[in-house]
Amino acid sequence: MLPNVLQPSATDHVPVLAEEVRESLGVRPGQTVVDATFGAGGHAALLAADLHGSGKLIAIDRDPSARAYFDRFEKRAGVQARLLRGDFGVVLEQLADNGVRADAILLDLGVSSMQLDRPERGFSYSVDAPLDMRMDTTQELTARELVNEWPERDLTMIFRRYGEERYAKQIARAIARRRKEQPFERTGELVDTIKCAIPAPARFGEGHPAKRVFQAVRIAVNDELGSLEAALPAALEMLRPGGRLAVIAFHSLEDRIVKQFLRDKERGCTCPPDFPVCVCGNEPELRAIERRPIKPSETEIAANPRSASARLRAAVKAETD
Ligand SMILES: C[S@@+](CC[C@H](N)C(=O)[O-])C[C@H]1O[C@@H](n2cnc3c(N)ncnc32)[C@H](O)[C@@H]1O
C-alpha cells in the first residue's frame, strides 16, 4: 500500500546507515543538532533520542509534505524542535549568517521513499505519472518543462554528466524529435522514447534502461549538486569547534563533491604543490572520522535494497586554539 503523507506511519522511510550515523555524530544531551534532510524524520528521531530530553533539533526539508512528518515527530521528540522549509544550501547559509551554531549536522541526500513511492510526484520510471520530479512542489521548474524546453545539447550534457548515460546524444535527439510532434506530459512517454533511442542489446544491460536519464533529469530539476556545493561550506561555518558533519550520498557525483570538500578542508593549505613553504597560512578546518566511506552491511542491503548505493562520510570540525 502507498504511504499516505497525511497519515504518516512508522514504516514510511527506513533510515539508512542509522547506527553508523549515530556513531559518527556522537550526539550528547544539551547539543544542537541539524537534520538538513528531514524527510520522514527517521534519522531525526534517533538523533533526538540521543539528546535525552535536553537540546535542540533543527529540521530542514524543501518538500512541503515533510511538515506532516515533522508534526508527528515533534509530538514525540521530547526536545525543542523546529522545521525550516527550503533548500538546505540556502537555509544553512542563512542560519550560519545569523550566528546559529550546531554540534552535529546530517545531510542524507537524494529523494526519500515517500517521494519515490508516490506516483504523482513523477520520480519513478516504473509507474506512469505526470512528469514532475520536484522535491519542492512550489518550485517552477518541473521535469515536464525541462524535457520539452531545454535545448537538445543541454539534454545531452545532463544525461552524460548527471546520468553517465552512454547513449546521451541519441536519447536527447529522440526527445527533440518526439516533442516537435507532441509535448511530453508523462513519465511513461519519456520511458518509451528512451527505450526506442538506445540499441536493443543495451536495453537489457545494467538495470532499467530509463534509470540513468531519470536520475539526470531529477538532479537537474532539483539542482541537487549546486545545493550540495552551497551547503557544505555553510554547514562547516555553522559547526562549533569539535562539531561533527555526516553526509550520506547515493551516487558517485554527490560522493565526489563531499570527498573533495572534506579533503580540501582537511588539508587547509591552498598553496600550489611546488611551493617550498606554505605562504597561505590556511590551517586544516576538518578531520575525517574514517578515511574510506562507510557502506551498508549485507544485512542492511537485504532488509532495505535502497540502501545499497549509500556512502557515509563524516568529519569533525577542528578545535580552535
Ligand atoms: C533521503 S531523504 C531523507 C530521509 C530522512 N533521513 C529520514 O530518515 O526520514 C532526503 C530528504 O531530503 C530532502 N532534500 C533533498 N535535497 C534537499 C535540499 N537541497 N534542500 C532541502 N531538502 C532536501 C528531500 O526532500 C527528502 O525529503
Task: Describe, in plain words, how this protein is organized in 3D.
- By secondary structure, this protein is α/β, with parallel strands linked by helices.
- 44% of the residues lie in helices and 14% in strands.
- It contains 14 helices and 7 strands.
- It has a 7-stranded mixed sheet, with helices on both faces.
- α7 crosses α8.
- The protein is globular and about 60 Å long.
- Mean pLDDT is 93; it is low at 1-8.
- The site of S-adenosylmethionine (SAM) has 22 residues, from α2, β2 and α4.
Hetero groups in this structure are: S-adenosylmethionine
Average residue-wise pLDDT = 93
Q: What is the helix/strand order?
A: HEHEHEHEHHHHHHHHEHEHE
The overall strand count is: 7
- Major beta sheet summary: 7 strands, mixed
- Indicate the proportion of strand residues: 5-15%
- C-alpha Rg (nearest Å): 21 Å
Described by the principal axes of the CA atoms, the overall outline is globular
Summarize this, please?
This protein is of the alpha/beta class. It has helices at residues 18-25, 42-50, 66-77, 88-97, 113-117, 143-149, 152-163, 168-181, 187-197, 200-203, 211-221, 224-238, 252-267, 298-303; strands spanning 32-35, 56-61, 80-85, 102-108, 239-249, 286-288, 311-317. It has a seven-stranded mixed β-sheet, sandwiched between helices.
